Amino acid sequence: xxxxxxxxxxxxxxxxxxxxxxxxxxxxxxxxxxxVDLLRVRTLADTLGQPIDRLILSLQTERRITxxxxxxxxxxxxxxxxxxxxxxxAAAEIREFTRGRDLRLLSAGTVRDRAGELVRRxxxxxxxxxxxxxxxxxxxxxxxxxxxxxxxxxxxxGPEWGAYESGLxxxxxxxxxxxxxxxxxxxxxxxxxxxxxxxxxxxDEQRRLTALVSIQRYAHTAAVAGLPPDGRAxxxxxxxxxxxxxxxxxxDRLLLRGGAANALAGLTVxxxxxxxxxxxxxxxxxxxxxxxxxxxxxxxxxxxxxARTGAVVGLGLIVVLVLLLSWAGTxxxxxxxxxxxxxxxPTPLPGTPAPLPAPPTPxxxxxxxxFLGLTRRNxxxxxxxxxxLDGMQRRERSTEETGELFQLDHLTTRVRRNVEKLITLAxxxxxxxxRRPVPLLDVARGAVAEVPDYHRVLIAPHWPWSLAGPxxxxxxxxxxxxxxxxxxxxxxxxxxxxxxxxxxxxxxxIVVDDGPGLDAAALAEANHLLGSPPPDGPPAGRAGWYxxxxxxxxxGAHVSLxxxxxxxxxxxxxxxxxxxxxxxxxxxPANAPPDSPYPPAHTGADLTDPVxxxxxxxxxxxxxxxxxxxxxxxxxxxxxxVARTARRQQ
Length: 650
Description:
The chain is of the alpha+beta class. The protein has two domains: about 45-300, no CATH class; about 440-650, Heat Shock Protein 90, CATH 3.30.565. It is about 60% helix and about 5% strand. It has 17 helices and ten strands. It has helices spanning about 5-70, 80-100, 110-125, 125-135, 140-155, 165-200, 205-225, 230-240, 240-255, 270-340, 365-395, 400-425, 440-450, 470-490, 520-530, 545-555, 645-650; strands at about 355, 435, 440, 455-460, 465, 495-505, 505-510, 560-565, 570-575, 580. α1 runs antiparallel to α2 (about 80-100) and α6 (about 165-200) packs antiparallel against α7 (about 205-225). The chain is rod-shaped. The two termini are about 50 Å apart. The relative contact order is 0.07.
C-alpha cells in the first residue's frame, strides 16, 4: 500500500465521518426539536395558559357588569369592584410571566412579546375605568375597549402552543376555538344584560345582537366538530341538558322579535341570567375537561418521545464516537503499515521486544527518493522470502535439500544486508529497530549471520552486556562490515575472532583477524576515514570502511584499527556507556587479551553445551530426517550454520 493509497483512504474516511456527523446532527435536531416543542407547550400551559384563562373570564365578567352599570346610569357597584379586583389579580400573573426568564421557553418565539403587549393594554385599563366612573365613556366605547383587550389576550395563543403536528396540537387548537366561541356567547350576554338594564334595545343594538347570536352558533358548531371524541361526547351531553336548552329557547325568542320595537319584552333579568350563566359555565367545563384529558392522553406519547430523543441524541452520539475512533485507529494502523512497508522486519529472539516502526525517512531529492522506495520494496520481498525459507527448512527432512535451503537462506540474508547498506549510504535509516535492550551476544551473532564464510568466525562465549534497542540495527551492520572485511583480508584457513571487553567508557567489541595486517600509513588512513567519513561519499575501494564509519557515527560508537598480536588487524568498536547495560558477571576477564582465541562453537545436532565449555548454540544441517527441527535464538538467521568440514579444519 502506497502513501497515496493511505491518503485516499484517509480522505474517504474523513468524508464519511463528516456525512455521519451531519446525519446524526440532523436526526438529533429533529428529535430534540419535538422534545423541545413538547416541553415548551407544557411550560406555556402551566406558566401562561392558566393565568390567561382566568384573565379572560375576569374581563368577561367585568365587561358585562360595566355595561349594566353604564346602561343603568348608576355608580360602581360592589359587584363591579369585585370584578375589577379579580381582573387585577389575573393581570398580576401575566406581568409576573413577562418579567421572568424561564429557560424552557427559549423556543417560545414571540409569545413573550404578545404577552408584553397584553400587559401594556392592561396597564391602560385603569384609565378606561376612570373614564367610565366619571361618565366620560359611553356603553358602546367601553364594551369595545374590553373586547379589544380580550382579543389581545386570545392573540397570545399562537403556533407556539401547538408543538409539532400531533394529536395534542389538534386538541389544543380545538380547545382554543371553543374558548373563542364562549367569548362570543359572553359578548352576547353583555349586550342582552345591558339591554335588560334599560328595558330596551336600539335598532343598531338589535342588529348587533342578531349577528352575535348567528356568529356564536356557527363558531360553536365548528369548534365542537374539532374536539376529541371525549370532548364531543361531553358537549353533546350538556347540549341535550337544561344548561343549553334554556339559552337556545331565549335566543330563538330574541331572533324572532328582532324587528319588534322591544325585542326584550317579557324577558326578565333573572331568567336570562340563569340561562346565560348555566351555558357559560357548561362551556367552560367542557374547555377545562377537554384540555386536561388531552394532556393525559399525550403523556405516554411524551414519554416515548423523550425516550426516542435520548436514544437518538445519546446512543447515536456514542455510536458516532465509536465509529470515528475506530476509523481513526484504522488510519493509524495504515500509516504505521506504510511506515513499515518497504523495510525488512526480522524475527526477534524469544523474549525480545518487538521492533520499533521505522523512523521517518529524511526528505531527499526525487531520484534518490525513487531508489529508496524501490530498495524498501525489495526489503519487503526479502522479508517474505526469508519467512518462506524458514518454513521450508522446518518442514524439509532431506539432508541434501536442507543444505541447499541453508545456503539460499544465507544468501538471502546477505542480499538483505546489502539492501540495508544501500539505504544507509543514501542517508536513510533501515527499519530494524527495537524498543528495549538486546543481549550484545545476540547482536554479534546476528552480524556473523550476514557475512560469507561465517563458519570461520569464532565468538567469545560470555557477553555480560545488553545493547540499547535503538542502536541494535546499526551495530549489527557495523560489526558485519568489520567481520566481512576481516574475512576478506585473511586466509581461508584462518579464523576471525569476535569478543567483548569492559572499558571505563563502556564496552568494546573487538574483531581480530590473522591476515597480513596493514602498514602504518594504511592504518592511519583507515583510522582517519573511520573517524571522519567524507560527506561526499566513500573514496574508491573504501566503501566498507566508509559504511562502518557512517553506522558508527549514527549510533554514537567509535571504531579504530590497530595491529593484533598475531600479525593481523584488530578492529575495536567502542560502545559508549549510554548504549550499554551490564546484565551479569560474565566469563571474560577484564584484562584478557583482545586477540586471544576462544573455544569454537559446538557442532552437535542439539542446541545445548554437553561438555560445559560455554560454546554458542548454532544452527546445523542435520544428517537425516530424524534430526530435530532447528530453532531461532538470535536476531534474524539466528543459529549460525556451521559446516562440519570447517570445524575439522579448526
